[in-house]
């Protein structure tokens, strides 16, 4: 395959309005969608706004929706489209648009602040931490997250319901809660923070109806639903909805 | 000119990569109200690209390791040109900086006894790199980011405002460091999203902007790496040090064209990957330089044994310092023994079971599968050198990270020079960020709270207006004749990258560098006519037009210094001066702005914008020299240095 | 900075604005997907619907569920007086003779509840029947959404109790499978085609039951330190491997249980004779 001319539709505009604009643009072997957007910038639309950084799927900046699906532009090879196919690129549709392909992802940074940070265990100095690999495996999977916010974008809880943004942290930050709750040395419980309960009461875990779109779009292949959200739901059940567990913990506390 | 918004802070940190965030954390913990300003979103800095690990002599895997050995390796790697005090501080403090990350929630890979696992890397005598698979940089940036958030949560509890004492200005660019006499008074910035200008007034500014790789065509660096901090320092009157030393990472992807330059981590070799040419030969055995002969295996058998029994075998030559490997690959390709797309083969598929490869090198597996459609568990990768890191940078005081000649200016991380000498070892970058990021934040905060705190420097209105006018120029640019079209900044950038790549690249020749200076002068003239369409709101063409100034300044520094240094050492290879010259070891090259008022007029290629001076370095402290064998020192140090 | 965390001005549109909310990129289409995204939810809905229709018919039929030595999994254990007598089969007349409806209804409530609250089936019917969402990045038709935060959907949280109940049911079905190693005269040591059908079914039932997310949590997922519980860790890993195939197992066991019942129906209604193997 050598180069060919592809047809693109790119959303251009800002918060005041905008629409899809047509472009015809050269595509060469081995290129990804981000390359084409860059070629548009260099040759046809110098002020086309787009976020990007590493171009290797590691930073999570170039999130957009390509043919209606949330994806990283740098990891979407042009070879997945036929030469005749029109490729439509729009900004993320769950967040307020700033300009062209750039959206205001401030929602995510606000949510990040609402999750209480790692609480270091008392009496353990730097250099004294001992953790087994099997105990850090689970949290390490979640720490692969590159914060591209594609899961936040695709999640219908906020994508389709702007009014839920206040109550719902989104898959990325519920996963952060799970990550900390599974951290072998996190001492939140000792400082009076109940992450399991907070997941349900403060971060809106109950809104999640486990329809798995977050897992489907994750470019890092993190099993967000199966390994973070559902285990977190089960942990919340331990705290809030399971009288047996509640009784057991009461008895154990009595015994102490 | 319209009124520009002003805010008052104690410390302004420019850049939110590893060094910038570590500096901000330290400054805030010292009590300074700290602002961080970064071009990208918070948490996207180039540090995320670091794969291999953080070098720190914790001795978790091999207890023979200690700071002295790390220091020795660092100096060897840098060919003794390192600012030795920095290398010493770095080796001594790195373990504490890594351990501290764990108390902030970092989760490194573990040893069987539960400590932080450490891996082998080029140039390091012992397994030394704390890592998380091959995404260590991500872990580092995320941990620092989350630490910042936790400090903000603390402030929220105390003041009801997350940003009371620590604020991150995302997607904003600094175009000028403002001064009051010799002292820093603040920064002039614009918000990329709105195009709005604003001024952060502060007595102390920490530059932590990273590198310059975007001036080269084949690079592992992202768009942010336009040498902003280097240029800001120059324009503020601070000198740059040894800018000729640019590291070409030996293993970047070479195909497909759109990803050319993207990094293939050194861990591939540290974990057993080997380099072969088109004849199937492990050619690195032919390229072990004399200074390293005693340390590296002479046969494939010995090299292979080393992975399992490092105490009784010498390491394979694939793990030589990066400059050596990059040159060797370059030579093989030139000799016609390259791979189909102009690289060489890097193979793990015949060295490890597919399962192990996927576990130890997950993002490499992912990267090749997704971007090149290559399954690295079944076939060899094609790799070639790519511009990766600049060892040169802002000349700083080793202990305080303070830039020379400008009071209140600090620099840390890649933007600071000296630490790595002529060549950086893999893994030393992340530890550098932490060690000197912390030091810069500490000393910036102390300075801001110090004796002069009551007499804060004032931001001069004229400087603000000048900076605003400079930033707006691309909107009114015109062609050489009245009414003709202005220059396209994208075209200028491409020409600059091509020039630096071809003429001041991995192998350098005098005539080519002179030619490069001519071309840079031409580009400088044209860059003044770089124009943009549209308005100020998130306009990438405009942003690039402004970054061109920085790239041109820095590129000229690189070219001039490279032309001046008539020897080959580390990241600087001269075809016309192929040997290392012991006399040059003591020489540092400093770049300063030719016009001290900060003007950028000079279009004459010979004169240029940059003045170069040669200075002699301080001799290495005797107790540090005593860490080396005499026979080794003879190879690096001039006669008189040896007998001092 | 608008990319920071400063509050944005509230959007002008009413709740339910979703992707057409005033602050978002102005795109009228509910989605721009070009692939056949509707295929998966449509197939899911069709499959589930087919099962519901079939199982409703069979559950209310109250006939043709026993043909020695086989008892339909829909009617086992049989807890009412009106059950067909099954020799040494699971005939436990707990409910006595006041129960006049099909005895299947008494026991089906448990597997039904288990599957209804199952994390996979939830996804399947939220998407397939309720279109919430129909597919990823396809706007859902509902104005409001409160997920599983309120009654009745908050009851999904009791899934683990249905898991507890599903285990004895699976044990009884295992017992039924053992009984299937008899011939029609209740003599041991025989096998027919039905025995094979029952074997496959019970294997899938167990695999589905044990691959349950609640099970994964209970056996080890709730632990903070795997290294201190090596046995539970091993079990957790094992359940985790099954759990990765929870969806496939959910469908396979749904089909197999219906087939096992249908097989018994064919025998009991005389439409088919069980081929005996030995």
TrEMBL record, chain A:
<keyword id="KW-0560">Oxidoreductase</keyword>
<comment type="similarity">
    <text>Belongs to the succinate dehydrogenase/fumarate reductase iron-sulfur protein family.</text>
</comment>
<dbReference type="GO" id="GO:0016491">
    <property type="term" value="F:oxidoreductase activity"/>
</dbReference>
<dbReference type="GO" id="GO:0009055">
    <property type="term" value="F:electron transfer activity"/>
</dbReference>
<dbReference type="InterPro" id="IPR001041">
    <property type="entry name" value="2Fe-2S_ferredoxin-type"/>
</dbReference>
<dbReference type="GO" id="GO:0046872">
    <property type="term" value="F:metal ion binding"/>
</dbReference>
<dbReference type="InterPro" id="IPR050573">
    <property type="entry name" value="SDH/FRD_Iron-Sulfur"/>
</dbReference>
<dbReference type="Pfam" id="PF13183">
    <property type="entry name" value="Fer4_8"/>
</dbReference>
<dbReference type="InterPro" id="IPR036010">
    <property type="entry name" value="2Fe-2S_ferredoxin-like_sf"/>
</dbReference>
<dbReference type="GO" id="GO:0022904">
    <property type="term" value="P:respiratory electron transport chain"/>
</dbReference>
<dbReference type="Pfam" id="PF13085">
    <property type="entry name" value="Fer2_3"/>
</dbReference>
<dbReference type="InterPro" id="IPR017896">
    <property type="entry name" value="4Fe4S_Fe-S-bd"/>
</dbReference>
<dbReference type="InterPro" id="IPR012675">
    <property type="entry name" value="Beta-grasp_dom_sf"/>
</dbReference>
<dbReference type="InterPro" id="IPR004489">
    <property type="entry name" value="Succ_DH/fum_Rdtase_Fe-S"/>
</dbReference>
<dbReference type="InterPro" id="IPR025192">
    <property type="entry name" value="Succ_DH/fum_Rdtase_N"/>
</dbReference>
UniProtKB/TrEMBL annotation, chain B:
<protein>
    <submittedName>
        <fullName>Fumarate reductase/succinate dehydrogenase flavoprotein subunit</fullName>
    </submittedName>
</protein>
<dbReference type="InterPro" id="IPR030664">
    <property type="entry name" value="SdhA/FrdA/AprA"/>
</dbReference>
<dbReference type="InterPro" id="IPR003953">
    <property type="entry name" value="FAD-dep_OxRdtase_2_FAD-bd"/>
</dbReference>
<keyword id="KW-0285">Flavoprotein</keyword>
<dbReference type="InterPro" id="IPR036188">
    <property type="entry name" value="FAD/NAD-bd_sf"/>
</dbReference>
<feature type="domain" description="Fumarate reductase/succinate dehydrogenase flavoprotein-like C-terminal">
    <location>
        <begin position="493"/>
        <end position="590"/>
    </location>
</feature>
<dbReference type="Pfam" id="PF00890">
    <property type="entry name" value="FAD_binding_2"/>
</dbReference>
<keyword id="KW-0274">FAD</keyword>
<dbReference type="Pfam" id="PF02910">
    <property type="entry name" value="Succ_DH_flav_C"/>
</dbReference>
<feature type="coiled-coil region">
    <location>
        <begin position="506"/>
        <end position="533"/>
    </location>
</feature>
<dbReference type="InterPro" id="IPR015939">
    <property type="entry name" value="Fum_Rdtase/Succ_DH_flav-like_C"/>
</dbReference>
<feature type="domain" description="FAD-dependent oxidoreductase 2 FAD-binding">
    <location>
        <begin position="10"/>
        <end position="430"/>
    </location>
</feature>
<dbReference type="InterPro" id="IPR037099">
    <property type="entry name" value="Fum_R/Succ_DH_flav-like_C_sf"/>
</dbReference>
<keyword id="KW-0560">Oxidoreductase</keyword>
<dbReference type="GO" id="GO:0033765">
    <property type="term" value="F:steroid dehydrogenase activity, acting on the CH-CH group of donors"/>
</dbReference>
From TrEMBL, chain C:
<feature type="transmembrane region" description="Helical">
    <location>
        <begin position="161"/>
        <end position="181"/>
    </location>
</feature>
<feature type="transmembrane region" description="Helical">
    <location>
        <begin position="249"/>
        <end position="268"/>
    </location>
</feature>
<keyword id="KW-1133">Transmembrane helix</keyword>
<keyword id="KW-0472">Membrane</keyword>
<keyword id="KW-0812">Transmembrane</keyword>
<protein>
    <recommendedName>
        <fullName>Succinate dehydrogenase</fullName>
    </recommendedName>
</protein>
<feature type="region of interest" description="Disordered">
    <location>
        <begin position="1"/>
        <end position="21"/>
    </location>
</feature>
<feature type="transmembrane region" description="Helical">
    <location>
        <begin position="98"/>
        <end position="121"/>
    </location>
</feature>
<feature type="transmembrane region" description="Helical">
    <location>
        <begin position="187"/>
        <end position="208"/>
    </location>
</feature>
<feature type="transmembrane region" description="Helical">
    <location>
        <begin position="37"/>
        <end position="57"/>
    </location>
</feature>
């Amino acid at each position: 395959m050598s180069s060919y001319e592809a047809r693109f539709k790119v959303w251009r505009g800002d918060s005041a309005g905008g629409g899809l604009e047509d472009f015809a643009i050269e595509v060469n072997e081995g290129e990804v969608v981000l390359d084409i957007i860059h070629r548009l910038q260099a040759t046809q639309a110098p002020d086309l706004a787009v976020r990007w950084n590493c171009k290797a799927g590691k930073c999570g900046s170039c999130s957009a929706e390509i043919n209606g699906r949330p994806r990283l532009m740098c990891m979407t090879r042009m070879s997945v489209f036929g030469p005749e196919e029109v490729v439509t690129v729009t900004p993320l549709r769950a967040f307020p648009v700033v300009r062209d392909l750039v959206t205001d992802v401030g929602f995510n940074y606000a949510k990040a602040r609402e999750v209480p940070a790692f609480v270091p265990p008392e009496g353990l100095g730097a250099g004294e931490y001992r953790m087994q690999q099997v105990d850090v495996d689970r949290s390490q999977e979640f720490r692969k997250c590159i914060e591209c916010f594609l899961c936040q974008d695709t999640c219908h809880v906020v994508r389709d319901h702007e009014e839920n943004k206040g109550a719902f942290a989104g898959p990325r930050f519920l996963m952060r809660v799970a990550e900390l709750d599974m951290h072998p040395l996190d001492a939140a419980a000792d400082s009076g923070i109940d992450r399991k309960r907070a997941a349900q009461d403060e971060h809106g875990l109950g809104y999640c109806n486990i329809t798995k779109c977050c897992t489907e779009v994750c470019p890092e292949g993190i099993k967000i639903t199966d390994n973070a959200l559902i285990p977190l739901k089960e942990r919340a059940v331990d705290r809030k909805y399971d009288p047996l567990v509640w009784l057991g913990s009461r008895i154990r506390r009595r015994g102490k | 000119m319209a009124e520009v918004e002003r805010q008052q802070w104690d410390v302004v940190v420019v850049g939110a990569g590893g060094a910038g965030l570590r500096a901000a954390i330290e400054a805030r913990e010292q009590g300074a109200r700290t602002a961080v300003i970064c071009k990208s979103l918070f948490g996207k800095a180039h540090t995320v690209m670091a794969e291999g690990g953080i070098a720190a002599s914790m001795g978790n895997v091999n207890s023979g390791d200690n700071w002295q050995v790390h220091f020795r390796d660092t100096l060897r790697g840098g060919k003794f040109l390192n600012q030795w005090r920095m290398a010493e501080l770095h080796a001594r403090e790195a373990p504490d900086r890594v351990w501290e990350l764990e108390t902030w929630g970092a989760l490194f890979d573990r040893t069987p006894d539960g400590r932080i696992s450490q891996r082998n890397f080029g140039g390091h005598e012992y397994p030394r790199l704390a890592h998380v698979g091959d995404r260590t940089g991500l872990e580092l940036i995320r941990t620092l980011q989350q630490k910042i958030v936790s400090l903000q949560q603390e402030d929220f509890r105390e003041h009801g405002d997350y940003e009371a004492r620590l604020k991150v200005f995302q997607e904003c660019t600094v175009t000028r460091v403002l001064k009051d006499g010799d002292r820093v008074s603040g920064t002039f910035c614009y918000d990329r999203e709105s195009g709005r200008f604003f001024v952060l007034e502060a007595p102390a500014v920490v530059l932590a902007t990273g590198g310059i790789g975007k001036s080269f065509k084949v690079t592992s660096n992202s768009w942010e790496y336009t040498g902003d901090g280097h240029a800001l320092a120059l324009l503020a009157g601070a000198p740059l040090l040894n800018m000729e030393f640019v590291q070409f990472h030996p293993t970047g992807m070479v195909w497909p064209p759109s990803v050319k330059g993207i990094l293939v981590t050194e861990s591939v070799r540290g974990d057993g990957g080997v380099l072969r040419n088109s004849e199937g030969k492990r050619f690195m055995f032919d390229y072990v330089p004399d200074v390293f002969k005693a340390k590296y295996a002479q046969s494939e058998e010995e090299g292979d044994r080393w992975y399992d029994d490092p105490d009784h075998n010498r390491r394979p030559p694939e793990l030589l310092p990066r400059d050596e490997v990059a040159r060797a690959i370059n030579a093989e390709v030139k000799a016609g023994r390259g791979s189909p797309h102009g690289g060489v083969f890097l193979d793990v598929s015949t060295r490890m079971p597919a399962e192990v490869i996927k576990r130890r090198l997950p993002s490499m597996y992912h990267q090749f599968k997704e971007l090149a459609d290559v399954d690295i568990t079944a076939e060899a990768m094609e790799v070639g050198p790519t511009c990766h890191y600049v060892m040169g940078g802002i000349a700083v005081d080793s202990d305080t990270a303070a830039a020379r000649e400008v009071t209140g200016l600090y620099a840390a991380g890649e933007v600071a020079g000296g630490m790595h000498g002529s060549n950086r070892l893999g893994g030393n970058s992340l530890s550098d960020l932490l060690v000197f990021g912390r030091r810069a934040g500490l000393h910036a905060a102390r300075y801001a709270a110090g004796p002069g705190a009551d007499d804060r420097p004032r931001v001069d209105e004229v400087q603000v207006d000048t900076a605003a006018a400079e930033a707006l120029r691309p909107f009114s640019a015109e062609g050489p004749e009245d009414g003709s079209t202005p220059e396209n900044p994208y075209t200028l950038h491409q020409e600059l990258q091509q020039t630096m790549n071809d003429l001041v690249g991995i192998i350098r020749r005098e005539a080519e560098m002179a030619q490069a200076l001519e071309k840079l002068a031409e580009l400088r003239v044209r860059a003044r006519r770089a124009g943009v369409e549209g308005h100020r709101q998130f306009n990438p063409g405009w942003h690039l037009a402004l970054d061109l100034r920085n790239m041109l300044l820095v590129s000229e520094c690189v070219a001039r210094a490279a032309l001046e240094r008539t020897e080959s050492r580390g990241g600087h290879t001269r075809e016309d001066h192929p040997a290392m010259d012991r006399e040059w070891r003591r020489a540092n090259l400093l770049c300063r702005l030719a016009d001290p008022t900060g003007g950028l007029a000079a279009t004459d290629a010979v004169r240029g914008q940059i003045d170069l001076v040669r200075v002699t370095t301080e001799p290495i402290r005797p107790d540090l020299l005593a860490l080396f064998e005499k026979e080794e020192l003879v190879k690096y140090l001039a006669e008189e240095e040896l007998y001092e | 900075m608008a990319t920071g965390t400063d509050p944005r001005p509230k959007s002008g549109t009413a709740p339910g604005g979703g992707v057409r909310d005033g602050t978002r990129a102005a795109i009228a289409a509910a989605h721009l997907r070009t692939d056949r995204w509707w295929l998966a939810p449509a197939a899911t809905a069709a499959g589930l619907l087919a099962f519901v229709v079939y199982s409703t018919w069979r559950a209310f039929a109250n006939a043709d569920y026993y043909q020695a030595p086989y008892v339909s999994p829909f009617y086992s254990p049989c807890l009412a007086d009106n059950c067909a007598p099954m020799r040494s089969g699971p005939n436990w007349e707990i409910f006595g003779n006041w129960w006049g409806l099909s005895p299947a209804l008494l026991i089906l409530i448990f597997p039904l509840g288990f599957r209804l609250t199952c994390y996979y089936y939830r996804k399947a019917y939220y998407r397939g029947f309720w279109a919430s969402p129909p597919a990823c990045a396809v706007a859902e038709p509902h104005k409001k959404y409160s997920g599983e935060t309120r009654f009745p959907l908050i009851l999904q949280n009791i899934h683990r109790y249905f898991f507890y109940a599903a285990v004895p049911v699976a044990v009884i079905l295992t017992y039924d499978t053992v009984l299937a190693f008899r011939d029609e005269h209740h003599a041991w040591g025989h096998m027919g085609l039905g025995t094979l059908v029952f074997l496959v079914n019970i294997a899938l039932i167990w695999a589905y039951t044990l691959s349950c997310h609640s099970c994964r949590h209970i056996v080890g997922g709730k632990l903070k330190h795997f290294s201190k519980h090596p046995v539970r860790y091993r079990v957790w890993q094992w359940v985790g491997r099954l759990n990765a195939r929870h969806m496939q197992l959910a469908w396979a066991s749904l089909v197999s249980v219906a087939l096992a019942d249908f097989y018994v129906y064919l025998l009991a209604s005389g439409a088919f004779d069980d081929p005996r193997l030995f």
